[in-house]
From TrEMBL:
It comes from the Eukaryota. GO terms for cellular component: plasma membrane. The keyword Lyase does not apply. It comes from Stomoxys calcitrans (Stable fly). The chain crosses the membrane at residues 310-329, 336-353, 365-383, 555-578. Keywords: Cell membrane, Glycoprotein, Membrane, Receptor, Signal, Transmembrane, Transmembrane helix. The keyword Transmembrane applies. It is found in: Cell membrane. This is Ionotropic glutamate receptor C-terminal domain-containing protein.
Length: 582
């Protein structure tokens, strides 16, 4: 009796074991089918160019993923060791990828480290996380995803799909369909999430002032972009002020951004590996602000009314008419009157002559008609040119190219933080590198803003337009910029690495560009500078020139020139008369 009982127990145990194995195989097969369906649906919707499979310290599952990947023709990359990661993927591959991460309690931290390294600067790509055990806390997992900036995350646990909603607090969100994780309607409302931003005084990029009611107004092109983004998504701003003109942050800026935990940086910073840049919203140029050409001395107006070619023509006419009068007098009257002929010639040119030849003949009529045309043309053209010059003033040529800086002795004052960047620019005239120097940043800011051009100053396109806006109502601006740029840069907002907002911010930034709101921000910043008193509209200084020496010396010069010619003619007549008596 004992033997059949023992056999029965053994058979029952074998049946139970077979049943458990069968259930386990069905469960594994069911999980595999679920993963296969999810990957297929994601591929069909997004058309991924590559699958990145991360399976740290779990070699058995690598084969499972490889078999799973055979369902499609999408290239794959399998990472099973953390030390095999040499560089970031965005440097070599198209980042239209789907990351598939197998995760459990043992490789939890290592998997996130691998995600951070591989998806550096592309952390907003799609991630499919497969949890192999139930002991992984979903809330802890999603908090880690938020800290690393992963927002497009789909988690498969016990054949159910999950994602998370970050606002107002991080919450686990079950999904009815796997593709629902891409529906980010909860990202349209940040529920007063606080954006910590550094604030400084760098008009027109970012600045503040108190209006007539004493209310603090914050303005600036970069700041308005960030403020519009924050207000659009129902968030709030927390400011920390830094005085960049009294202290240079070139060496410590990355540490400050990391330690202070800033969400976004609405100020100008040069490109650096310590932070990320948004999409460029403007391709800006770097210009030199230079003094405009000075007004030439008014006593020179008598000479510059005609060009050299015109003065040469006047001289040739003077000689031709003089010779003509002398020859006609000699042929008709047998007289050689040189001085009188010269006086008649000068009278003809200035259009104040009387009859040169007193006999009324057709030949003399033709000559007088010729003299009339010459005198009328020369006198009127000269007077018109001279009058227009006195009305509009004549100035020295403005500097148009970087080589024109050699015409001045002014140095090029640059901001301390930008000096190394400007010195690294190639293909500029050697004189530009020699003239650039670093001085007091506070003086640099004040002199450039007030257009006190004791030196040449460097500024971006927006800054140049901002400071030169003060000369809008000036008849003749005393400051200008060289149209040939030193270099070009892309304007962008700086964002810390691993920010979960960078993709959403870039999309919002494109809306601002397409709608024209960005150009309105630029115009508003110029007028806010005027309203704040940071800048002002300069006006022309009224100068009474009626009794000035510059006004009287021209008439005196003409009188003196006439007296000299008259004295010369008088002395010539005296000499000729004295010779005739002898």
């Amino acid at each position: 009796m004992s033997d059949p009982t023992k056999n029965y127990k053994r058979s029952l145990q074998l049946c139970i074991i077979l049943l458990c194995c069968t259930l386990q195989c069905c469960h594994v097969k069911s999980n595999t089918e679920v993963m296969q369906n999810i990957i297929q649906q994601l591929d069909e919707q997004r058309n991924f160019q590559m699958h990145l499979v991360i399976d740290i310290q779990n070699k058995n599952n690598v084969e499972k993923f490889m078999d799973l990947e055979m369902i499609g023709e999408v290239p794959k990359m399998i990472i099973n060791r953390l030390d095999s990661i040499n560089q970031h993927l965005y440097m070599q591959f198209n980042m239209e990828i789907l990351t598939i991460a197998s995760m459990n309690i043992r490789n939890f931290n290592q998997t996130f480290d691998a995600l951070d390294k591989l998806l550096w600067r592309r952390h907003y790509t799609n991630i499919f996380v497969i949890l192999e055990h139930e002991d992984v806390d979903l809330l802890n997992l999603f908090q880690r995803c938020w800290a690393q900036g992963h927002i497009w995350v789909l988690v498969l646990q016990r054949q159910r799909c999950y994602t998370y909603a970050p606002f107002p607090t991080i919450q686990v969100k079950p999904l009815n369909h796997c593709l629902d994780f891409q529906e980010k309607s909860h990202f349209h409302n940040f529920h007063n999430y606080t954006f910590k931003v550094p604030f400084t005084h760098m008009p027109p990029i970012i600045f503040s002032y108190n209006n007539r009611e004493g209310k603090l107004i914050r303005s600036g092109i970069y700041y308005k972009i960030v403020e519009n983004f924050v207000q659009h998504y129902n968030a709030c701003l927390q400011h920390t002020f830094y005085d960049i003109w009294k202290r240079s942050f070139k060496e410590v800026i990355v540490a400050i951004l990391k330690n202070e935990g800033f969400t976004i940086i609405p100020t100008y910073l040069s490109s650096n590996e310590g932070y990320e840049c948004s999409d460029s919203f403007h391709f800006s140029k770097i210009f030199l602000i230079v003094p405009a050409g000075k007004e030439i001395d008014q006593s020179l107006y008598l000479l510059v009314s005609y060009h050299r070619e015109m003065w040469l023509m006047v001289l040739l006419l003077l000689i031709a008419i003089f010779v003509l009068i002398v020859v006609v007098n000699y042929c008709k009257y047998q007289q050689l009157i040189y001085v009188e002929a010269l006086l008649h010639t000068l009278k003809i040119l200035i259009f104040v002559y009387n009859d040169v030849f007193r006999q009324r003949t057709f030949f003399n009529l033709y000559l007088n008609f010729l003299f009339l045309i010459v005198g009328l043309f020369l006198t009127n053209s000269y007077v018109c040119n001279l009058s227009s010059m006195y009305a509009s003033r004549i100035y020295e040529p403005d500097m148009k190219t970087l080589e024109d800086v050699a015409d001045t002795e002014l140095g090029i004052h640059v901001y301390t933080t930008d000096y190394d960047n400007y010195m690294s620019i190639k293909n500029m005239p050697p004189l530009i590198y020699e003239r650039m120097f670093v001085g007091n940043d506070s003086e640099f800011y004040a002199n450039r803003l007030n257009l006190n051009l004791v030196n040449i100053y460097v500024g971006g396109e927006d800054i140049v337009n901002f400071v030169l806006f003060q000369l809008l109502y000036v008849k003749r601006p005393w400051a200008n910029y060289i149209a040939e740029p030193m270099s070009t840069i892309h304007d962008s907002i700086k964002i810390p690495h691993r920010s979960p907002f960078i993709e959403l911010f870039n999309r919002h930034l494109s809306y601002l560009k397409d709608s024209g709101i960005l150009y309105k921000f630029k115009g508003d910043s110029q007028w806010d500078g005027i309203l704040s008193g940071i800048t002002q509209f300069f006006q022309d200084t009224e100068v009474n020139r009626s009794m000035s020496m510059a006004y009287l010396q021209n008439a005196f010069l003409m009188w003196l020139l006439g007296m000299f010619v008259a004295f010369t003619a008088f002395m010539g007549e005296m000499i000729i008369a004295w010779k005739r008596k002898i």
